[in-house]
Design brief:
binds adenosine-5'-triphosphate, binds zinc ion, EC 6.1.1.16, ligase, protein biosynthesis, four-stranded parallel sheet, four-stranded antiparallel sheet, alpha/beta, tRNA-synt_1_cat_dom, 15 strands, 16 helices, metal-binding
Length: about 475
């Protein structure tokens, strides 16, 4: 079984073949830290977290880097609005980022480089591009000359000439930057200092870096000149990743990344969920209403390249799905004296999981295998509580449970053993059921059959079937 990936650069699904066998260098464009993260950011972080975990599970050593963009107009604007500094805004939202990601079970990256910590590397790169004729200074700024780079447009499939035609050669005369550029598609590598804004010394005078150059510099510093996998949201393909390629490849003469992978957007009513559009729900607000693992299930239930439309119904369905998994995952704790995933696993099920996921990270296909195991364990758990017996042997069930726990862990879907007594799938706990059965017995004794039937119906509508046994004993099972 080979892992194949859809490479945005070649528009094809290709076998994965890292530069150094057994080892993967992976870079993800991270967050611009000027606000709380929303569900769109959660999707990006969760998807690439799971890709990283999966590669590790296949046996690769993975070095995973994600940056923070902590120099940016949006951060500056917020700082001005709040009468504080850019550093303090960035610090606050970096802290919030780590809190949110911990709740979602996203593993920390191996390093989190920041623009403010990478200034030397950025300046070196700009200088190199200038030396090689790809960059020109203009009145305190430095611009990248896109038409000097042969491969410009190869990632996004956009031709510079088409872009030019689209822009109809018009130059916005009231935009001071536009007047400094030799070509409208040139972009800033370095921006001369503006009054009252943070700035750093450089050979071009005081100023600050552009957005695209920081990623080129951080990739190089953290992972080298050519990396295996570069990832980010599909909104970054153009211009951000196109510009990263132009910068890095012009400087080194080598490919920046062997595989470019992009996740689809979280949308709301067809539009990208975005801070700027104001149509977002923060991870914090979301986690007030839904369980973190339900959010993960929502994200992993769609193929990573497809858009997800955010709705409450979608999250409710993902919650139900998660509860099925949770019931399966709790089997070992409830019935197998709480051992966890260290035991043997079933090769056939593992094979099916890998076969699904190896096809361009089809996590939804992998999840389907997990649901199947979880449903069987849930059913056998019910058998065990109500008849004391199971259909399969307990040894087989232990192997299935280990398989489920191991593979769900690869997707970062885990239960907290302390939470196992929470209400199960239908939201009704064992003790609530027992209480209703008691009430029903009392009603029956009083010959209030209407009430006793009502209770039976109520439980039935919540997925609980009652079985009246001889001697007035009532047992129950969870159906479904
Ligand atoms: N709606 C979304 N769905 C999926 N990924 C997203 C979404 N919005 C942003 N991302 C991804 O999150 C990462 C961080 O993005 P960044 O901080 O630049 O957000 P942004 O695009 O400025 O957000 P916004 O558009 O909300 O202002 C990027 O990889 C980006 O592609
Ligand atoms: Zn980037």
């Amino acid at each position: 079984m080979t892992l194949t990936l859809h490479n945005t650069l070649t528009r094809r699904e290709e076998p994965f073949d890292p530069l150094i066998p057994g080892s993967v260098g992976m870079y993800c464009c991270g967050i611009t830290v000027y606000d709380y993260c929303h569900l769109g950011h959660a999707r990006t972080c969760v998807v690439w977290d799971v890709v990283r975990r999966y590669l590790q599970y296949l046996g690769y050593r993975v070095r995973y880097i994600q940056n923070f963009t902590d120099i940016d107009d949006k951060i500056l604007n917020r700082a001005k609005r709040e009468g504080t500094t850019m550093e303090s805004v960035a610090e606050r939202f970096i802290t919030a980022y780590f809190e949110d990601m911990e709740r979602l079970g996203v593993k920390p990256a191996d390093a989190y480089p920041r623009a403010t910590h990478t200034l030397d590397g950025i300046k070196r790169l700009v200088h190199e591009l200038e030396q090689k004729g790809y960059a020109y200074p203009a009145d305190g700024d430095v611009y990248y000359s896109v038409r000097r780079f042969q491969g410009y447009g190869k990632l996004s499939g956009r031709e510079l000439d088409d872009l030019r035609a689209g822009a109809s050669g018009r130059v916005e005369t009231d935009d001071p930057e536009a007047l400094k550029k030799h070509d409208p598609f040139d972009f800033a590598l370095w921006k001369g200092a503006k009054e009252g804004e943070p700035s750093w010394d450089s050979p071009w005078g005081k100023g600050r870096p552009g957005w695209h150059i920081e990623c080129s510099a951080m990739v190089r510093e953290q992972l080298g000149e050519t990396i295996d996998i570069h990832v980010g949201g599909s909104d970054l393909i153009f211009p951000h990743h196109e510009n990263e390629i132009a910068q890095s490849e012009a400087a080194t003469g080598k490919p920046l990344a062997r595989y470019w992978l992009h996740n689809g957007m979280v949308k709301v009513g067809g539009e990208k969920m975005s801070k700027s559009l104001g149509n977002f729900i923060t991870i914090r607000e979301l986690l007030d209403k839904y369980e973190p693992m339900a959010v993960r299930s929502l994200i992993l239930g769609a193929h990573y390249r497809k858009p997800i439309d955010f709705t409450d119904e979608g999250l409710q369905a993902a919650t139900n799905g998660w509860h099925t998994l949770r019931d399966g995952l709790s089997f070992g704790y409830r019935y197998l004296s709480g051992e966890n995933g260290g035991g043997s696993i079933e090769p056939e099920l593992e094979h099916r999981f890998i076969e699904a996921v190896n096809h361009d990270f089809n996590f939804a296909g992998g999840l389907a295998v997990l649901f199947e195991i979880a449903k069987e364990l849930r059913k056998e758990g019910n058998n065990l509580s109500h008849t004391g017996k199971t259909e399969a042997s307990l040894e087989d069930l232990a192997v299935k449970w280990h398989t489920l726990a191991r593979l769900a862990g690869v997707l970062g879907l885990e239960i907290d053993p302390a939470s196992i007594d929470l209400p199960a799938t239908d939201g009704i706990s064992d003790s609530e059921i027992e209480a209703l059965i008691q009430q029903r017995a009392t009603a029956k004794k009083a010959k209030n059959y209407a009430e006793s039937d009502r209770i039976r119906e109520e439980l039935k509508s919540r997925g609980i079937a009652l079985i009246d046994r001889p001697g007035g004993v009532t047992t129950w099972i969870r159906e479904g």
